[in-house]
Each structure stands twice: as C-alpha cells, then as structure tokens.
Specification:
Layout: H1 2-28, E1 42-51, H2 56-66, H3 73-77, E2 81-96, H4 101-104, E3 108-116, E4 128-134, E5 143-150, H5 172-184, E6 193-209, E7 212-226, E8 229-240, H6 242-247, H7 250-270, E9 275-276, H8 281-288, H9 301-330
Antiparallel strand pairs: 1-5, 1-8, 1-9, 2-3, 2-6, 3-4, 4-5, 6-7, 7-8
C-alpha cells in the first residue's frame, strides 16, 4: 500500500513537471516578446525620423536623384542592390479604450486602407487589414511586433460581433483569434472604439537585393484627425522587410540593421535637422492634437427610436388635422 502511494505521488509529480516544462518551453519559443501571441506575429525593425515640414520636398528630391539604382551608394558597392519608387495613400483608423491602454503602452490597433497611387493595378491597391502593433519586442528598441487580421465587410449582420465597431470589421475567420490574442495582451476587445484617424501620403523607395525585397524608405506627409482637431507632421521611416527580418538569425539581422544605419547616416549628413524619434505615429498624433482623453461614443439607438416614434406621431397628428379641415370644408 505504501509503495502504491509513493508510486502514485511520483507519477503525479512527474506529470506536473512535464506540464510545467512544456509551458516554459512554449513561452520561450515566443522569444523575448513578453507576451504570448500566435506564431503569426512578425517582427519589424525600423528607424523612425522626424523631419521639418519645410524640408519634405527637398528630401524627396534628394531621394529621387541619389537613390535611383545607378546613383545609390549601396549599388555602387554591390550591383545586386536595386531601387524602385512608388506612391501610396494610407488611411489608418486607430482603436483604443477609455483607459487609453494602447496609447499608454505605445502600442496600436488600426484598420488600414491602402491605395497605390502610382500603380492602381498593383495587387495591394485597395487592400484592407486590421493590424496590432506591439512595442518593444525583445531587447532591440528598434523592433516592434505586428499581427495582421483579414478585413471583411458584411452586409448582413448575422454572426456574433458583426455589429461591433471593432470586431465587426475583422473577417469572421480571424475574429476569435483576435479576441483571444487581445485578451492575452490584457485588452478587452469589446471596449475598443475608433479614436484617431491618420492619413498618410506616402512616398516609397523600395530597396531590393538580387530582386528580393530588402527594405523600404518611406517619406510620409501625415494628417491626423480626432473629432474637430487636426494636426500635420512629416516622418521618414527606414524599415527592413518584416518577413526577411523575422526569418533571419541574429547575424543576418545585424547585417540588415547595418544597411539601415548607413542610410540614416547618409541622410543625417545631408540634412542635419532631421532627428531620430521612435515614438509611434499614434502617440505623436495624440501629443499634437488638442485632446487629453478618449470617450466611448454613446449608444444613440434609444434616441433614434424616440425620434422615429416622434416623427410617426407628428405624421398621424397631421393626417388627423388634415381630415378635420377637409370635413369642415365639406360641411
């Protein structure tokens, strides 16, 4: 009997140990993210640069002239480098809650709409995505996590959450994954509502190596709106291709980051006024707008119903009065 109890205890402890081991290994497999997200997360690495508004045209002209393939300094070092240019219109609707959890964490949730102005035939023209941006992934201050969900607009509101201002925009196939991941992040999806809208006229410089995407230089003319408040600013980003960066080992990542640093040094040398500033656009916009809080829009369904009922009553009264007047005339 004693042997049986000891054996049972041993097996129980072994099961607990194996369970804890699996949990720890699974968490470690997520890297140093600090959060447990799906393996669909990509890691982006970018240098964000604030630029004086008056320098926008001059900097873009510089990029057009000096970053064309034949003039690009990296191409002169290695002819496998090549460059193409494009222009986009990006509209980002951000979401947050009244606690401003995303803003305070320097994170972001946004519904992105993209129009490729330079080539409407591009496969990305008209594309919509819901994106979660996670600040400070790992030890690299230039890295952020990103998770993407498909967007779909449903005419018939039949499924759960179809009418929600945030969840209703996400494709039903991705919706419950989004709910789960946001809850693990400490965000209640049902509390989210639209906040700041940011529009960007984006000049893109695509840098490729052996025809494969390597990185993108983006020069953004940004307009942010919240209710009646508006602000504008200019930002330039040097972003390594997120798929390439996510799949690379530490040695390759360092090589890619070196390219970004070289481009930043070149721009800094020619435009001394530019400054590196890793503040997300969402936070920059909030700081510039004359606001200090987000308020969840009130549900106006009751007011609308009362308005409709009032309208019906007025119509009935008008009909009754019309009939009375008509009857008097006949008499």
């Amino acid at each position: 009997m004693k042997f049986f109890i000891n054996k049972s205890l041993y097996l129980s402890l072994l099961i607990i140990f194996v369970f804890l081991f699996v949990v720890v290994v699974d968490c470690l497999s997520q890297g140093n993210q600090g959060y447990y997200f799906s393996k669909s997360m990509r890691i982006e690495n970018e240098i964000k640069i604030t630029i004086p508004i008056e320098d926008f045209n001059e900097i873009y002209s510089y990029l057009q002239e000096n970053y064309s393939t034949e003039n690009f300094f990296l191409h002169k070092m290695d002819s496998n480098f090549s460059v193409t240019f494009a222009e986009d219109l990006i509209i980002d609707q951000y979401y947050d809650n009244e606690k401003m959890q995303l803003l305070n964490g320097r994170d972001g949730i946004r519904h992105r709409k993209r129009a490729v102005l330079s080539n409407p035939e591009d496969e990305k023209h008209g594309r919509e995505l819901m994106q979660i941006k996670i600040d400070s992934v790992g030890d690299n201050p230039l890295s952020r996590g990103e998770i993407k969900y498909k967007v779909k607009h449903y005419r018939k509101k039949e499924a759960e959450f179809d009418s929600h201002v945030f969840l209703g925009v996400i494709d039903r196939e991705d919706r419950y994954r989004a709910i789960l991941e946001l809850k693990r992040f400490g965000i209640e999806p049902l509390d989210l509502f639209p906040t700041i809208k940011i529009e960007q006229n984006r000049k893109r410089v695509y840098v490729s190596y052996e025809q494969d995407p390597l990185m993108t230089i983006t020069l953004d003319s940004v307009t942010a709106n919240y209710k009646r408040e508006t602000s504008t600013f200019i930002e330039l980003e040097l972003e390594i291709n997120e798929n390439l960066y996510t799949q690379s080992d530490s040695i390759k990542r360092q090589e890619l980051e070196n390219y970004s640093t070289m481009i930043f040094d070149d721009l800094k040398t020619n435009f001394p006024k530019i400054k590196q500033d890793q503040t997300p656009k969402y936070n920059k916009a909030f700081a510039q707008l004359n606001i200090n809080e987000f308020k969840k829009p009130k549900n106006n369904v009751g007011i609308i119903i009362l308005g409709l009922l009032g309208g019906v009553v007025l119509v009935i009264i008008s009909i009754v009065n019309y009939k009375k007047i008509k009857n008097k005339k006949q008499v």
